[in-house]
Amino acid sequence: IQDKMNEFIGFVINSDDGSFKKNFSKYADKNSVIDYMISMYMLGLNTSYAKDLIFVTYDDGPWTASLFDMENAFGLFDDGSGFHSADYGLPSLKNGKWVSGTDSLLWDRVLNNFNGEIIKRYAELRKSTLSVDNIVKVAKEKISMVPSDINKADFKLYGGQPQQNISHAEQIEKYVTERAKLLDGIFNK
User: Fold this and answer.
1) Could you say which DSSP state residue 106 is in?
2) Neighbours of 181 (CB within 10 A)
3) What 3-state class would DSSP assign to 117?
4) Could you read off the pLDDT of 111-141 as tens digits, one per residue?
């Protein structure tokens, strides 16, 4: 497994763009990587760029990107003390090349080499799973599953928790609405 991951890393570092496009699927499931990237951007999963990135494999097949450890969703700082603005960590065009906003060669190369596929998939997901209405609906459903007495007990036990006095549903809706507008502008260029 370690050798397999090192081969993937070496491929990302050392391949030229032609080889990267042609051989990427030998190393990683391109669809999972594209979906991961779009989700990471849309949900503001800022530590998922690298720190909370996991790849899984089944029967020694290509790596599949998998989201996990999403406690910093919707722009939450790593330490929970506040929120990044909706424009934090977004991709941009610089000198005709895509820059992922992540300091990651993998995400830069994926953006530059599979941009058409990313834009197409982004448009599909924005109509369904990653529509603002759906994200807010799911977030509110998950928030409502936690009884208020559990939250109160948690806050009492961990009294120094930041962000105790905000409406997370309202924060999520505001963040996702702003983020979607920004990403729509980026991926509709």
Assistant:
1) H
2) 12
3) helix
4) 999 999 999 999 999 999 999 999 999 999 9
